[in-house]
Amino acid sequence: MDWTHYRFLSLWALPAPPAVVYAALERAEDYPLWWRQLREVHRIDDTTGAVRIRSLLPYDMTFTARAVRRDPAAGVLEIAVSGDIVGWARWTVTPDDGGGTLARYEQTVEVNKPLLRRFAVPGRPVFRANHWLMMRAGRRGLAAYLEAV
Description:
By secondary structure, the chain is α+β, with helices and mostly antiparallel strands. The protein has one domain: START domain (Alpha-D-Glucose-1,6-Bisphosphate, Chain A, domain 4), CATH 3.30.530. The chain has helices spanning 18-26, 31-34, 114-118, 120-148; strands at 5-14, 38-43, 48-53, 61-71, 76-83, 85-95, 101-111. A hairpin with a 1-residue loop joins strand 5 (76-83) and strand 6 (85-95). It is globular and about 45 Å long.
């Protein structure tokens, strides 16, 4: 097993129509407004941005995110990431039976950050829990943001 390789899946039920959720997720530079763990998102060009995140654990992760797929009709937003993590992440936005939206977040990455690589084996459960907490906060933040707009 490669202890520095991670696959994540999060499902967010959100109280807004899919087009509204997709539009919010498409504006990555606005993520820090509603997702406190995304500390900075700086647009580099039309498809690329620099991102700094920090969740509960006392370390930052920085990476470059480059859009590889934007498909509003299919509800898909996908990025390639490089830096402290390397891999990809994808949002898939679909209607929920209750009239809202189901936002599916998938991520497959390898960790490059030396500190996290050094503690890959003993830290893995803690790193996964840290990611889970970050995603929970993101869902709550986006839900509140969507209700306010």
